[in-house]
Design goal:
Strand 4 and strand 5 (about 160-180) form a beta hairpin. This protein has 6 helices and 11 strands. The chain has helices spanning about 1-20, 90-105, 110-125, 195, 200-210, 210-220; strands at about 25-40, 50-65, 70-90, 125-150, 160-180, 180, 220, 225, 235-250, 250-265, 275-290. It has an 8-stranded antiparallel barrel with strand order 1-2-3-4-5-9-10-11. The protein has a two-stranded antiparallel sheet with strand order 6-7. The protein is α+β, with helices and mostly antiparallel strands and about 290 residues long. It has a single domain, classed as Porin (Beta Barrel). The two termini are about 30 Å apart.
Amino acid sequence: MKKFLISTTVIVLTTCGLYAQDVKFGIRGGTNMANMVTVKSTPASDGYDGRIAPGWGIFTELQLNPAVSLRLGVEYSGMGGKKNGMQALPTMRLITEMGNSMGLMSTPEQIENLQQIAGVMLSQCPYYYADIDNTAKFDYVMIPVLAQFGWNVGQSPWRVYVNAGPFVSFLLSGKQVSMGTSKMYADASGTSTLWDIVPPPIKGIIAEEFSGMANTLNEPVPFGTTNITGEMKSANFGVTGNLGIRYQCNRNYFFLEAGGNYGFVAIQDDKTNGSNRIGALSVMAGYAFSLF
């Protein structure tokens, strides 16, 4: 579906270029200051700061009259946010990761015990805490459709413009990139580990059948990258816009613009651990040229 929509958009951009009288094709690239806005507040969804991410793409601009044009594009957009320091993480994700690592080696009895352990941990502690650096990295293909209004600066080759319009975007990948080594704590104060809250009978089962789990729940462990694409919605839509200035060189032009975008869809597929919307401020530079 994503490939079809992207291919269709490219065809539309090319076809429009064949029939319009004043058409330019361009490339743009730069930096996003991406962030995540909390919609449903939980310890896991709160507290994100902005992250720097790349953005780039291609577009075609169809000049409708001296002041108004239509800009259509296909872009890659890096989104997400980051947290540093003590922070909450979903215990369910930890249980799933531990279960996957042990699943192929487990007997039916051990699987039953794992389910019992999971139930106890979730009831005692739906979120655990770790002192790490954590970045949510999301990669999207974005398709914006912008109405653009521009004014020449006197008789000079300079022109200022503003554009705005809707976009639709499609998720390529979602990752939680965690860096650092930390114990897994039962609360934000770091006074007790997950092992400390496990009842003695369950500790006995863990010590007898899953000895490595005891170390995981009580000792510092290294954190890494988790693929969370399956936890996220595959599409988004919202609004985007830019304020820019360009320098005309014959029929071509260079430009610099600042703008932003905001998605209306909460990105998490399951709202159990809260939900966020995403957006970004951006600074982009580029070049556009005429083929006709």
